[in-house]
Structures are given as C-alpha cells and as structure tokens.
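Board notes (copied after class):
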Amino acid sequence: MEEMEDKRNLALRIAVDAGVLDECEYHDGTYTEGSNDIEEAYKLGNARITSGELEGAFDSRREMTDLIKEVVTENCADECYSCARHRDE
C-alpha cells in the first residue's frame, strides 16, 4: 500500500511539474487545474523514465500514465476548495 502511495505522489509531482496541475500557494496538498494538457505530463514522465531519473519507480510506462491520469482527474478543480470556503465565509 505504501508503494502505491509513493507512485501516486510521484505521478502527482509529474503533473505539477508539467503544468497540468497547480498546487495552491496557501494550502499545501490542494491542487487545481493547470494551464497545460495532460499529454505534457505523459511526455515529461516518459522523458524522465528514458533519462533514468525514474528508474524502477513504476512497473511500466503504462502504469505511470494511468496513475498520472488518475491523479489529474481527482485533483483538477477549478479553484482551491479551502480558498473558496474561506472567501465564502
């Protein structure tokens, strides 16, 4: 279970680094939709596997792209829910 969480966190970091997701500057661990298409995260992840940076991190490239898609789908809100809640109070 811990290994899968590590893989999901790595997929999330790839999505953020690729600009597909943005992390709220005020609320760590809260993400919103970024300006780039998910394909940019796939390309970045594949480039990192090719360069050896992610050697052994994922069982396959397919596993990596599936996890990127999963974390992007789960975290692609239009705005930070914490910021929205504080604004609306």
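Comment from the instructor: The first strand starts at residue 21 and ends at 23. The beta strands are 21-23, 31-33.
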